[in-house]
Structures are given as C-alpha cells and as structure tokens.
Amino acid sequence: MRIPRHLGIAALLIGASWLWGCSDDTEKPVDSGAGDHQVIPDGPAGEQKIYLDGPVFYDQGPDMAPDQAVDSVIPDASPPDKDCGKIACNCTYNGKKHYGKVQFVTSFPDIKVREVTAFEDLKVEKVTAFASSCGKWEIVTSLPDLKVQVVTSFEDIKIRYVTAFPGLP
Predict the structure, then answer these.
(1) Whole-model pTM above 0.90?
(2) With 35 labelled, which of 42, 131, 133, 153 sits at a CA distance of 20 to 30 A?
(3) Residue 104 buriedness (CB in 10 A; 0-12 / 13-18 / 19+)
C-alpha cells in the first residue's frame, strides 16, 4: 500500500487506524508507534477524532482508502488578538507597560511620546500614588518602570493628558 508523501504523518496515522480496524464504536487508541494520541468517537456526524499534539484529523472509518484518509485539518490556532492600535490591548508597547512609575528623560528613553489634544494612542492621567492601571503615570526621578522622552516629531506614540478615564481610547 502506497501513501502519498504530501499527506505525511497524518495519512500514516489514519491509515494505521484503517489497517487496525478502528470504527466509530471503538474507543481504543490507534497503535502506530508514532507517539501519544487517542481515538474518540465524537467528531462531526459520528466521525472519529484522532487527537495529536496539535491539529485534529478526521477519519471517515475503516472503509476509506488510506490515500483519502485526511478529510480536513483544523490547525491549533488561538483567536487573533483584538487590534488596539499602536499600544497592545494589555497596555504595553515594545514589551514595556504604560502605567506605573514614569521618569521623563532627554536621552535613552524606552519610548518617545508627543503630547496632543486629539487622536491620541494613550490617555494619560498623572497620579501621586497607585498607578496600577493603564494610562496612570506616577512621575518619579529615580527607579522608573518606564523612561519617556517628550518630542515634537518622530514619536513612537501620541499621548493626551486627562483628569479622568485614562487608558486606551
């Protein structure tokens, strides 16, 4: 029996289940020697699911030819992150959080910002304590969480100072 190369390991595993006679009413593991996986008869329309480390392959049962074994492949992908603009939805930019203790510097900043009155990337509220949520900045002169340089052009992000509701727009 010849299995096409483009089907790879999936065809080998499903072909092995076909050879060993797994059907929809069995729950025994397919023994192909290729690693840990199990057959569970709860796929769509009574099809078997063979669980591997990543994708799910559907087997149509023992009457299917091995070269037609892979009916569909569902990749193991997480849902895409919501687009929040230049700043990530978790209030970070280039791995630096945008809340907490902030020091204004003139050289070697973590981020360059431009102060605007509209169309900001981040709304910033200056606080004196408890800067623990997105957009709340406690201004310090030493030991900052984030070093910021204020520029008039070529900024990384644009900020607008607010007195209430800081964070992402």
Answers:
(1) no
(2) 42
(3) middle
